[in-house]
Specification:
alpha/beta, Rossmann fold, 6-stranded parallel β-sheet, elongated, EC 2.4.-.-, Glyco_trans_9, ADP-heptose-lipopolysaccharide heptosyltransferase activity
Length: about 350
Amino acid sequence: MSYLILFILFLPFKLIGKLFYKKTGRNLLIQTAKIGDFVNVTPLLAHLKHSDVLISKTVLPLAKHDETIDTIFLIEEHKKSLWRKFRLAFKIMNCYENVYLLHPNSTNLFFASVCNAKNKQYLSTYTRRWYQAPLYFTATGTVEHSKNQLTVDDYLKLADRTLTWRNVPKHATRPLRKPESYPISLDKQNVIKIGLSISAGNKSKTIPAAVWKKVFDALGDLNCIYYVFGPQSEQVWLDDLHREVGEREDIVSLIGELPLEDVPFAISKMDFYIASDSGNVYIADAIGVPIVLIYGPCCIEEQRPLGNVLLIGHKEYEKSYIFEAPYYFDRSREEMFALSKDDLIKIRTFISRENNIS
């Protein structure tokens, strides 16, 4: 509601500015969610070829190495005070011909609404509130998104209603950035290299250590090396895993070792990636690494890897959505991520088949 009031306060400046608006041919994309959501925006970025973006600081390391992105605005720098909000509003008001709103929370709706662009396309989701209606009136078109529609498809439809994910591939950085140096452990030969994300940020979406032990046991005879990816804050989850499975030579920790801009290249060195619905899963998908997704409470109809992927989970537990993600569920993590004997056979078969192992 407060952003509606801000829009009303800014409206006289917007109307005066409109008198001086000229077409620029420039695009602005607004998507301030985290890593996986950013990767799912890259098909739209690729389709448009050149765009400015309003994003979260979290994904800046990826965005600054993307040749489809020109100017970057960080939401964290512009929402802390009224002065900063209005300063950005004045900066973007008359700069763009096309504005695409992909993450329509109230903050982002405000910034999209103040633009005098000729073409403004907004995503409308199941979390839309009644008081956002006046801001949606500033759009020239909307794409209605529901829980059983792929986000990546609906993002593309903002630019062209005929596009789907099959028309434009994802990317993590464009081109794929090769760092000057990287851990030599990534170059191990004659082993199956499997990347892992042992945490998904949200504790309720984090695979329990006991489940990982079952996966390791199922793959025990395949000569696998497991690379654990993640920021330093996820060391606590690795400690938990070691308590469950012990210190093992086949588990290589990359926790805190890689800046985000180096993660896509490191993942490209993997033969497989196994995780729950985490940002690195979508990086792996964009690079073409085969994935085992143990999705737990996440809705795979709305968002999932779309390449070579094995989906493991149960429909009855799908209660977490892209625009409505609870931190607590009525089932335990052990229940939501439980793996049956058949699930473990599927995982082993998937990895064996891809490596031509009988």
